[in-house]
Amino acid sequence: MHKSSPSDSPKAYIMLFRICLWRGFCHIILSTTFVFIYQRILCGIERP
After folding, report:
1. CA distances from 39 to 21, 22, 27, 33, 43 (A)
2. What span, in angstroms and rounded, lies between the C-alpha atoms of 31 and 23?
3. How far apart are the first and last CA of the chain?
4. Could you count the other beta carbons within 10 Å of the beta carbon of residue 7?
5. In angstroms, how far is CA 6 from the centroid of its own chain?
6. By CB neighbour count within 10 A (0-12 exposed, 13-18 middle, 19+ buried), where does 18 fall?
7. Dihedral of CA 37/43/45/48: which sign?
8. How far is Cα 5 from Cα 11, in angstroms, rounded to an integer?
9. Whole-prediction pTM
10. HEC profile for 1-48?
């Protein structure tokens, strides 16, 4: 039977953590960019 070694678990947790961190990072960048563009459009509409 294949028994997973103890060193396997931390690797999986680190990988999961990195994925979550990366997704959160991308989400922050996307939302910030969206808000920035949205504000620029609103300013453009308000001030011709």
Report:
1. 27, 26, 18, 10, 6
2. 12
3. 72
4. 7
5. 29
6. exposed
7. negative
8. 11
9. 0.51
10. CCCCCCCHHHHHHHHHHHHHHHHHHHHHHHHHHHHHHHHHHHHHHHCC
The pair of three-digit structure tokens given for residue 39, joined into one six-digit string? 């504000």
User: CA–CA distance from 1 to each of 4, 12 (Å)?
Assistant: 10, 21
pLDDT tens per residue across all 48 residues of the chain: 566 555 668 898 999 999 999 999 999 999 999 999 999 988 887 765
